[in-house]
TrEMBL record:
Residues 618-634 have a biased composition (Polar residues). Residues 582-617, 635-644 have a biased composition (Basic and acidic residues). The keyword Transmembrane applies. It comes from Helopsaltes ochotensis. This is LMBD2 protein.
Length: 669
């Protein structure tokens, strides 16, 4: 069992990252390198969060062994040592042998730093580039990141020159490495506290509001009005871009050197636009460079970039609109079923996707009514209270974790109590719940924030490549300072506890922060206290109010604009509901007609066919009798008569005179 826990968590975290990426990304349409890079970034960050509790329990066991093996004469005041006969160390079930964790953390940490500072920014520019070849996209990405990389090189070069000139500094490679890690963690901690302050308040509040049916329905109406505006804007933008593509496609003919670029742009357009442009295009005309002015390859690359963005945005708004409609219909059904006397949940519309039979067997309409109308609100309220309690503990510990005598951080108190009894299961569960809650508060904010239309993580496979790569960058920059902050809250970091104890393997690869004392003793300790101010600002929705004043519509209950958007969204939902009801009624009528008259129509049709066959055979036999009077008996067979009848020309009803009896005309000729 020594390495089984590590192996199981490595496999589990991989499938967790793959599941989340499949929910937000599109494996079929997006580039494989984008999927692989984003998956690797998410996987490494989630892996750090899940493996760190094992590192803590292994470190506590190693400290116990060190305390047992050290004699009382050799021990100092930092160690809590007892006589070997009175103290016994129990090996944890998830113990990781010595030498594995340092190598593991070193590989994971430096790989994530390479991704976030070098590879992912380059791939962002590569993914958004409108070039038509790999060389062109790489060139564009290098040009866009020249300022980005040049700034870091300039700062690092200036620092090296300062250290080389100043004789008071005698830095070695390990110290330079520690300075680089400290600079990256400082940038990450600055952003971490901002996101953490928002998540600590918004997550419990969102679950508390989730128990309010009226609140959720009003917010859904508000979202519908905003999304309809965005949807109309996306459609208008797509129409404008497609018009430009049509003009370019008509101007650049089949034998133009840039026609391949135009064909590449056309492949990115929706199918209906491709068919429309294909019908209106005439490729029989040759191009003449002296008569017409043609766009350059650079302008076509810009148009290609605009097409990719507009098509992605249009598709995303269409999918989100359908999802929002389903959510609004379901919330309206919940509001109607709350007063149901039968206590069975009735849906207005049937699900368009086939449901699992196992779910249908257990999740009956009665069970659904009890869950949605009775149990779910109370469950969300209890969960909100639990999350709010965790948030209060985190805020208190962030403000007091620097105090070691007495220990005021509640997380440190819990870990130290479990350490005395060597209850490794409790230690790992407490560490996992703590760091998992911190991660949820930070990562959920990353998934929720939206920077206009440049960064937006949309579920149901609607996230573009740029946003996926940007989320990977944020995760790789936020996770290391998040873990260091967790170790500080639990006093497992020697920089915080001020004890000469064995550090965790994760802390050992970070190096001693004493090289930069103003960061170790100042910024890392006092800056997290800012989370109190951010929590207060989030509780009173100061950021929402500021955005609302700037013209960005936000959901606020006491705003007149919010009420207008709610009314508009309610009317939109009502209109879509009537439209879908008419469609379902038409389908039901056609289905009932088919079920009621389908068999009868088939039998009637078969009888009619059988009757027609009888009448035709009877008419053929009767017609053959008078026909024999007007034909000579020259030995012709019945087959010849049939061929003659088949070759007869149709009557010309526009002629001057038409004989009533075709046989008389034949005999006359």
């Amino acid at each position: 069992m020594s390495g089984a826990a590590l192996g199981l968590e490595i496999v589990f975290v991989f499938f967790l990252a793959l599941f989340l990426l499949h929910r937000y990304g599109d494996f079929k349409k997006q580039h494989r390198l984008v999927i692989i890079a984003t998956l690797l970034a998410w996987y490494l960050c989630f892996l750090i969060v899940f493996i760190l509790p094992l590192d803590v329990s292994t470190t506590i066991y190693n400290r116990c062994k060190l305390a047992v093996n050290s004699s009382p004469a050799e021990s100092n005041g930092s160690y809590v040592t007892l006589a070997p006969s009175k103290q016994k160390c129990f090996k944890p079930w998830s113990y990781i042998p010595d030498g594995i964790m340092p190598i593991f953390w070193r590989v994971v940490y430096w790989t994530s730093q390479f991704l976030t500072w070098i590879l992912l920014p380059f791939m962002q520019s590569y993914a958004r580039s409108g070039g038509f070849s790999i060389t062109g996209k790489i060139k564009t990405a290098l040009i866009e990141n020249a300022i980005y990389y040049g700034t870091y090189l300039l700062i690092f070069g200036a620092f090296l020159i300062y250290v080389a000139v100043n004789p008071n500094f005698n830095l070695q490679w390990n110290q330079l490495q520690t300075i680089g890690i400290a600079a990256a963690n400082t940038w990450g901690l600055f952003l971490l506290v901002l996101l953490l302050g928002y998540g600590l308040v918004e997550i419990p509040r969102s679950h508390w509001n989730g128990a309010k049916r009226g609140y959720l329905l009003m917010k859904t109406y508000f979202k519908a009005a905003k999304l309809m505006t965005e949807k109309a804007d996306a459609e208008e933008n797509l129409e404008d871009i497609m018009e430009e593509v049509r003009k370019v496609s008509e101007s650049i003919k089949y034998n133009h050197p840039l026609r391949k670029c135009v064909d590449t742009i056309l492949k990115k357009c929706p199918t209906e636009y491709q068919e429309r442009m294909g019908r209106n295009m005439d490729d029989y005309e040759d191009f003449d460079e002296r008569q017409n002015s043609y766009p350059s390859e650079k302008s076509l690359a810009k148009l290609h970039k605009q097409v990719i963005y507009s098509v992605q945005r249009h598709r995303r708004t269409q999918v989100q609109w359908q999802i929002l409609l389903e959510q609004a219909f379901y919330l309206e059904d919940v509001a109607k079923n709350e007063s149901s006397a039968t206590r069975q949940f009735v849906h207005t519309f049937h699900s368009q996707e086939p449901e699992n039979r196992i779910i249908q067997y257990f999740y009956t309409p009665t069970v659904e009514w009890y869950w949605e109308c009775l149990l779910r609100p109370w469950f969300y309220r209890v969960l909100a209270v639990v999350l709010a309690t965790f948030s209060v503990i985190v805020v208190w510990s962030e403000c007091t974790f620097f105090s070691t005598k007495p220990v005021l951080s509640l997380f440190a108190v819990f870990i130290q109590l479990a350490e005395k009894t060597y209850n490794y299961i409790y230690i790992e569960m407490a560490c996992f719940l703590t760091i998992f809650f911190l991660s949820i508060c930070v990562y959920s904010t990353v998934f929720r924030i939206r920077v206009f239309n440049y960064y937006y993580l949309a579920s149901h496979h609607q996230t573009d490549a740029y946003s996926l790569l940007f989320s990977g960058m944020l995760f790789c920059r936020l996770t290391p300072p998040l873990c260091l902050n967790f170790l500080g809250l639990t006093h497992m970091d020697a920089t915080i506890s001020h004890k000469n104890t064995q550090p965790t393997a994760y802390t050992s690869i970070m190096g001693s922060m004493r090289v930069l004392s103003f960061i170790a003793d100042g910024f890392y300790i006092y800056y997290p206290m800012l989370v109190v101010i951010l929590c207060i600002a989030t509780y009173f929705s100061l950021g929402t109010r500021c955005l609302n004043l700037l013209g960005f519509q936000q959901f606020m209950g006491d705003s007149e604009m919010t009420s207008d958007l709610i009314d508009e969204g309610k009317e939109l939902i009502r209109r879509e509901k009537r439209k879908r009801q008419r469609q379902e009624e038409g389908e039901n009528r056609r289905r009932e007609w088919k079920e009621r008259y389908g068999n009868r129509d088939d039998s009637t049709r078969s009888r009619a066919v059988h009757t027609d066959q009888k009448e035709s055979s009877f008419s053929e036999t009767n017609a053959s009798r008078p026909l024999s009077k007007y034909t000579r008996s020259n030995g012709k067979t019945e087959r010849d008569r049939i061929e003659l009848l088949q070759d007869a020309e149709p009557l010309d009803f526009n002629a001057d005179s038409v004989n009533d009896d075709p046989l008389e005309s034949d005999s006359g000729r």
